[in-house]
């Protein structure tokens, strides 16, 4: 069973870029059939899918965030990453990375990391 | 995006009760629906996929049903460990969306 672990700064200034990495252990990130996604949850609120990347590096983004999001994969390090540009306080949230099959449910999740946007 | 609406937002129940949570989609999503359980400070945990398939290791007191636009998650006999927040998620299209959540509280 894979294990996922998010890492990155816990504090980002407004207008800057939020950058997070998810390290996958217990399996190859480039294994066919699997997709790797980011989901966030503002404090006290619900879940929002941000975007996903496939084993073949195809990307899929939430239309409401698409203009600010980039997801990439580094197969040599078994990691995938999230960049969210021009952040505001509304981007303060716990950010989760997770695995899924194509257009499917999320079966394995990281523990989540809180990112606060504040000057 | 396919909007997902859960009801109720909060549900108070007692150990041993049978409870049902409803999730409605604004358009048909066939059976492409999952249910998750989330406890405070933890990541969501997959319970049900494809509307009614039980994830491995999940107790059989959890069940899901529905298709098209209306879905339900039922817990047949509430246990103390079940008090948590539950979310539905559609994956009919490649813009996944979640319901707003249902908080299951102890009465």
What does this structure look like?
The complex is a heterodimer of chains A (119) and B (107). With 119 residues, chain A is mainly β. In chain A, strands 2, 4, 5, 6, 9, 10 and 11 form a seven-stranded mixed beta sheet that branches. In chain A, a hairpin with a 6-residue loop joins strand 4 and strand 5. The radius of gyration of chain A is 13 Å and the shape is globular. Chain A has strands at residues 3-7, 11-12, 18-25, 34-41, 48-54, 59-61, 69-74, 79-84, 93-101, 106-109, 113-117. In chain A, 36% of the residues are buried. Chain A is built from no helices and eleven strands. In chain B, the strands form two sheets. In chain B, strands 2, 4, 5, 6, 9, 10 and 11 form a seven-stranded mixed beta sheet that branches. Chain B has strands spanning 4-7, 10-13, 19-25, 33-38, 45-49, 53-54, 62-67, 70-75, 85-90, 97-98, 102-106. In chain B, strand 7 and strand 8 form a beta hairpin. Chain B is built from no helices and eleven strands. Chain B is mainly β and 107 residues long. Helices cover 0% and strands 50% of the residues of chain B. At the A-B interface, strand 9 and strand 10 of A face strand 5 and strand 10 of B.
Helical element count of chain A?
A: 0
Please outline the major beta sheet of chain A: 7 strands, mixed
Tell me the number of strands of chain B: 11
Percent helix range of chain B: under 10%
How far the N terminus sits from the C terminus of chain B, by CA atoms, comes to 35 Å
Structural class by SSE content of chain B: mainly beta
> What integer value in Å does the Rg of chain B equal?
13 Å
> Per the principal axes of the C-alpha atoms, what is the gross shape of chain B?
globular
Low-pLDDT runs of 5+ residues of chain A are: none
Catalogue the unreliable spans of chain B: none
**What is the overall silhouette of chain A?**
globular
Largest interface between protein chains, with number of residues from each side: A-B, 21 and 24 residues
């Amino acid at each position: 069973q894979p294990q996922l672990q998010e890492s990155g700064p816990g504090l980002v200034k407004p207008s800057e870029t939020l950058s997070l990495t998810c390290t996958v252990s217990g399996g190859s990130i480039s294994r066919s059939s699997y997709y790797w996604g980011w989901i966030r949850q503002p404090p006290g609120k619900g879940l929002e899918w941000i975007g996903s990347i496939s084993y073949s590096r195809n990307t899929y983004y939430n239309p409401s965030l698409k203009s600010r999001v980039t997801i990439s994969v580094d197969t040599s390090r078994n990691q995938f990453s999230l960049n969210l540009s021009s952040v505001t306080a509304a981007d303060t949230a716990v950010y989760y990375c997770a695995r899924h099959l194509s257009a499917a449910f999320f079966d394995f999740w990281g523990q989540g990391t809180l990112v606060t946007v504040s000057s | 995006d396919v909007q997902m609406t859960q009801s109720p937002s909060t549900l108070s129940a007692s150990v041993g009760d049978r409870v049902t949570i409803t999730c409605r989609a604004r358009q048909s999503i066939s059976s492409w629906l999952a249910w998750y359980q989330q406890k405070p400070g933890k990541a969501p945990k997959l319970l049900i996929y494809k509307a009614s398939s039980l994830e491995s290791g999940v107790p059989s007191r959890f069940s899901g049903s529905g298709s098209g636009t209306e879905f339900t998650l039922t817990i047949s006999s509430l246990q103390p460990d079940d008090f948590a927040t539950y979310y539905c998620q559609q994956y009919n299209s490649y813009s996944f969306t979640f319901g707003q959540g249902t908080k299951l509280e102890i009465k």
